[in-house]
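Notes to self after the Tuesday call (sharing in case useful).
The group wants a holo model before anyone commits to mutagenesis around the pocket. I volunteered. Ligand is nicotinamide-adenine-dinucleotide. Logging inputs and output together so the record is complete.
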Amino acid sequence: MPTSMGGGKRVGVAFLGCGYAADFYGPTLPNYPEISLIGAYDPEEERAKTFVAEYGGRLFGSMEEVLADPEVRIVVNLTPTARHYTVNRAALSAGKHVYCEKPMTTNMAEARELASLAAQRGLLLCSAPATVFSRSAQTLVRAVHDGVVGTPRLAYASLDMGPLAFMAYRDWRSKRGVPWPYREEVANGCVLEHAGYLLTWLTAMFGPVVRMSGHTVTPFADQWEGVVADVAPETSFGALRFADGTVCRLTIGWAAPADKSLLVVGDEGVLSVDDVWQASSPVTLRRRVRTTGRDTGYLAEPERLPFVLPPLEHGYDDEAHDLTVGAGIADLARAVLTGDRPPLGAEFSLHILDVSLRFATAATADEHIDVPAPSATRLWGDRYRHPAEFSALA
Ligand SMILES: NC(=O)c1ccc[n+]([C@@H]2O[C@H](COP(=O)([O-])OP(=O)(O)OC[C@H]3O[C@@H](n4cnc5c(N)ncnc54)[C@H](O)[C@@H]3O)[C@@H](O)[C@H]2O)c1
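Result:
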């Protein structure tokens, strides 16, 4: 087993898939001494070549070669979503622990099959996203569990990424120049791509989802003609009840302007994070105070909570992405070394996938009860009234 410079044990890791997302991982790996990067494979050889040149390890000639290498104990699956199931199954069958990018598969039957294969073989199966390991997330989760705002009752969570259809997504390139695979992302839809980023935080704070409803819309479907055959969700709204009783209004989308905020309302105050996409976004507390009867506020001035974790030394040098992706692999590596259960293990990951899939196929308008329509189509009237007109009528 390889050892780190500090003498600690390290776990050999190999990457399958060296596309756009691989550049989020590579720069964060040096933060984690328990990871030893053995190498990488991609059928587009140039991508694997540039990956190992930039981040280390050796070039593998095939997936089979990776899976046959006894030094490789964890396979990181960064292949396109449609390949996740077959690549995960091949890796588990070859006796490797698996860390897979989200979503682990595109349906629950396959995900459950993978989880039981891993259990039978005594292997660990984890899935991204890992932003729940960020300083912001850990500070927020700790504060909620410590009862800083009393009992949590309500949460408002948004991951609106901005209106993708109107952005220059065709030009986006990773650090090594790999184009953003927009056709695949748009075909998967915002929910499969992004719901996990918030669901992991919410589930870590409040326990599993026990009840949910959702509504999915495609407001800019016309913009995707010629890009994808079927437009997947562009925005989903939901209401989720968690095991501890907290209810959350959740929005996931790429149609509205960006809003990546999260608010937890408890009976003793309110906690908030402005941007869950940034690993070091401040966590703010506003405690409930007694009101004087002379004002309508009930919250003290905002105070910034100290982060429970130090900043990471190595990160992805792009202002838009302050992510903690490597933390998920490191946590799996630690679990391989200690025999502990990794937080992002199969049970947790399957639940996040289950809720994401339910959310992605949430009710569309025609499945809802129609509200009886009044005969007039414009209830308000024909024109705007200036306040002066009202006083003239009086
Ligand atoms: N693009 C993003 O911003 C982003 C961010 C986070 C996570 N993700 C997730 O990461 C995964 C990969 O996304 P991406 O954007 O890097 O896609 P990508 O298309 O840029 O890269 C995927 C790579 O996998 C390679 N590949 C295909 N089959 C393979 C195999 N059997 N073995 C090894 N390599 C194989 C492809 O040649 C390609 O280079 C997806 O699940 C996606 O949801 C993407």
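Two things stood out.
Residues 16-22, 41-44, 47, 63, 78-81, 83, 87, 101-102, 178, 180-181, 193 surround nicotinamide-adenine-dinucleotide (CB under 6 Å).
The chain has two domains: 11-127, 136-312.
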